[in-house]
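Lab notebook, bench 4. We co-purified these components, and the gel suggests they stay together. Before we commit to crystallization screens, I want a quick structural picture of the whole thing.
Request: model the full complex, all chains together.
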Amino acid sequence: MAEVKTGSRTGPDQEDPAWSSGAEPFKIKVVEPIHRTSRAERERLIEKAGYNLFSLRSESVYIDLLTDSGTAAMSDSQWARLMLGDEAYAGSRSFYRLKDAVANVMGFPLVIPTHQGRAAENVLFTTMVNPGDVVPNNMHFDTTQAHVEHRGAEARNLVRPEAYDPVADVPFKGDIDLDSLEATLAGKKTRAGPKTGASPKTGVGSTGESIPLVLITVTCNSGGGQPVSMANLREAAGICRRHKVPLFLDAARFAENAYFIKIREPGFAGKPIREIVREMFSYVDGCTMSGKKDGLVNMGGFIALRSRALYERATVWAVLFEGFPTYGGLAGRDMEAMAQGLEEVVDEDYLAYRVGHVAYLGRRLKEAGVPIIEPVGGHAVYLDALRFLPGLPRERFPAQALAVELYVEGGVRGVEIGAVLAGRDPRTRENRFPELEMVRLAIPRRVYTRQHLDVVAETCRGVLARRETIGGLAFKKEPPVLRHFTATFKRI
Amino acid sequence: MIEPIKMTTRPGRQAEIERAGFNTFLLDSDKVYIDLLTDSGTSAMSDNQWAGMMLGDEAYAGSKNWHHLWDAVAEIYGFKYMCPTHQGRGAEHLISQILIRPGDYVPGNMYFTTTREHQERAGGTFVDIVIDIAHDAQAEHPFKGNVDLGKLEALIKKVGPDKIPYVSVAVTVNMAGGQPVSMANLRAVRELCDRYLRSDGQPIRILFDATRCVENAYFIQRREDGYKDKSLRVILREMMSYGDGCTMSGKKDNLVNIGGFAATNEKDVYDKLTQLVVVFEGMPTYGGLAGRDMEAMARGIYEMVDDDYMAFRIGQVQYLGQQLIDAGVPIVRPVGGHAVFLDARAFLDHVPQSEYPAQALAAALYLDSGVRGMERGNVSAGRGKDGKEHFPKLEMVRLTIPRRVYTDSHMDVVADSVIDLYERRKSISGFKMIYEPPQLRFFTARFEPVRREGFWGPGGRHS
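Here is the predicted assembly.
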């Protein structure tokens, strides 16, 4: 790889991952055929699906950018290890291989496998979080927030303010705001003395908030896959240590984050990714992990920890929700594949390809004049629907309309992250209109080629050229909860 | 395709069982010769299932494997709606959270550990309604898992239909030794529940724990009048027709290594499932499973109702059981569908229950031949709120037979070892517990023989 500049500028015009990598560091070994449908067919299919992309059968989709979660192509080594799964309930060899991989890559001695990332959150939060608690995070992902709230606690986002600005070009837009973190922790409940008889966990008997842990999500998914800097992690860890609050990473995209540190943060250009990853994890007490992202698997997750006491408390819940602690709701073969995936994901050539691949789509879109969220993050490109369809009122759901048009135009499936997803205010029953109205194009790992991304870019350009004709959507049937999954619409 | 296993040596096993604190859960699997710890998730999949693994459609939404699974559940079980989960306890968790309100009662034909835990966490109280004879290890009864209709009706009259979110019927009953429920009994439970309407006008709901439902169907085919000429497919559909839904661990009868689902005929229950599954499992169209695992489970559902397969499956369990019965070894009678349960109290009648005879027997069996069973007795039952041990009536070692994995020759090795141990049973010492974890102690507790020299005894035939 060419030497990269390590300054604060990250735009595609300077050190540009989109062009810095060569061809993919892999070749294709097994294929899954996909079908290109005609525009007339797609018009019919999307009408039948009620203009909701979630309701499309996957075989009706040409290029599926709905999510990067669980959609990775595994390597031949991973498939080989699928055949080596030890399905023993207790003491499976495959568990020990996963444990070794987590120790080797992340540096944690203890691991509890779970069927995927949200299950790790469920087990960890049931163990640590109590009603009335506050859990700070740079930005909670939606399932993380749901689990915190399910425990009766408050999920509080403390990301730096630029994260909410679609065009602010900041290298580490996912950083947690250190002043806010300090202020939040300074105001927490102090541990009650033994005289009050209060449990130290809840700290009853003093004022302020109870904070069982602080989370930092790397990369910051809800902010567009934006990375967190090493300096930010280090300082956040210092603050947490001073206030005696454990710090955890939501580590789903830890390797992509490490790569951004390498190419953007002063002092890291010459360091191997494995060292950067180990340093990131050295600042925290543990992590939750969705293996479906940087574990390069279709199913799997885990909790990794240093504290044996916490491990033992968490295994009780793991048994109830997931499975015995040596399989945690996964087949032995899936633990094998994840162990192998963790070793593959910290390969520098792979990460250069991965981040470069996503940046490539971003660059093609910018060249075509398509408005996107900048800088481009690690796993997806986000179209800015408000700038894409400036004339369309928010009540006509511009991002949903744009996502539908991308499907009609080129068979590309993205996902709306805007007013449809945000739902209605529970009190007023009015639609909530979030600051950003976006279509996310998430790129599965090692699945599509640049030709596929060219089709995506062409598709976006095609829609842009006829954007005046797009009239938006209105609800035909609106379910009361989680409406984005099953709602139907009509075109205006 | 085969997976090599290692023939272990007696000195090696002695070192391993000591290292594991005489707890078979703490043995590493590569130190085990024949692993009968569980039948859950340990099946050998078929070539057809492995071919399906290559056809996994890992799309988050609208995966074709989900459609295949939906169709398989509709066709073979007959339920209208299906929501996948990562395994059976995931489905139990969702169903308990959706249906049980604090103060409710959940009647069931014997408890199962994780099931009861989820019911209690949701605020319900489990009420045992299995027939009394199920608690007697040696008593013969063709359908020892049957619901006691009198017990069920008494509960309904006492608390009223509105306090019973559902009757939980396990087919077969695991904790009773894999004992089946008869079709006549299922029909009678349905009729009873139909007579008591809730205030919304609906009869009391019946949900199956359908984990080993086809093994149950096989016993109906063999033992119940009028069913010997009916296929397992037909019998299973009739069984399921008496319920309103089920939870399923695909890791047993569905012949997969991971997977489960909840099924229902009620639209509003399904709607709630789709909302809650997103929080704990995954999107309703994958529920915490890879696409390939849904495909393998869909294919396993068609394979499990093959009459020849099931005759082989139950036949193998009976084959092991019959050898032990012929040799006079005390086991739970009749032999159930998925396991042979050694009656450890009768086996080691010189060891008081406070010295954990089932734990000692499981350790001695491993030491003798490298066979791993599971303690299901005083250690598993744990302690009550008063801190005292439960001393359950059934003190057993479960020898669970994985599906399609071991041959009858493996069963011979197991039988020889058990019979050999029985002949020199007096040399086996009881245990004392030297480490006791606060919860679910059977997983990680550590032990020592009360008489160390006696425990090692003379070498077994496989040494």
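The first helix of chain A runs from residue 17 to 20. Worth comparing against the SEC data before the next meeting. Chain A touches chain B through 59 residues (CB under 8 Å).
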